[in-house]
Hints:
Elements: H1 3-11, H2 16-22, H3 47-70, E1 75-86, E2 99-107, E3 121-126, H4 131-139, E4 147-153, E5 161-164, E6 170-176, E7 194-198, E8 204-209, E9 213-216, E10 225-230, H5 232-241, E11 248-252, E12 269-273, H6 279-285, E13 292-293
Parallel strand pairs: 1-2, 2-3, 3-4, 4-6, 5-7, 6-8, 7-9, 8-10, 10-11, 11-12, 12-13
Amino acid sequence: MTCLYLLVKILAHIPTKDVVATSLLFKRWEFLWTYMKRLEYDQEYQFGKRIGFSRFVDKEIGLWIRTAVRRGIPELTLECGDILIQLPLRLLTCKTLVILDLKGWIDLNIPVTASLPSLMTLHIVLLRKSNYEHFSRILSSFSLLVDLMVEQRTSTAISTLDIAVPSLQRLFIRTVTKKDNGLRYSPHEKPIPKVMINAPCLKYLNIDDRGNDFNVIKDLTQVVEATINAKQTSTKVFLMYLTSSIKRLLLYSLRLEDMDPSIFCKLVNLELCTSTCGWLKLLANSRLKLFNVM
């Protein structure tokens, strides 16, 4: 075990800025930080330092991403603040990227040549209205996508969110309103018209969205676990497609008359967050063999 190996193992447990500072101690350590497998840059500093840091990072971020891609990067988290970032073409054709996390002001108008053949996990926060126009095309570039998490704001959502991924197994959709952030609703703040889901291989579903209407294009016959916090109409839509396979189900604020427990032939775990009376009696009279009811 070499001295260099030990140093790299030790430095892997400290912040990136401290790793770079360590490289200044000795001439032979000058490029020690380049051996790090993970580099984290953030702007959690005082306001003045934050502005300088942000400008420096935004100016060089394209170069850093291209360098990481050349080295076969498997995972990238990109969170941008004040300046709009254009994703480098080299990133959009990376063959080694498995996990991609995009947050903030990022331009999703990607070229038709974009293809990430190894990408399996995508977490994305939609902050720009124009990104909705390109979202479906982005998903079509990920032929092996298994895990998708989408977070959106009602203040920027203006059109239908279309999710069509044949390989998708896990889907999490969360819509944040101004009310969620402790702010008042704007009279111009309207939910997007509809969320379209076409994912025939989906197994795990998590919906946290009480503003939008959902439409399921393909039967969700493979879903075994679901958490649904949505409007009454959307909840009823999901329940129609979950009857044959669902085993674990968590529901929020569902009316008693909208639920017939007997339709879930494989359900073994049910959690209900509701103030409606009569649920225990309804479940007791059903033929379900539930092992856990919350």
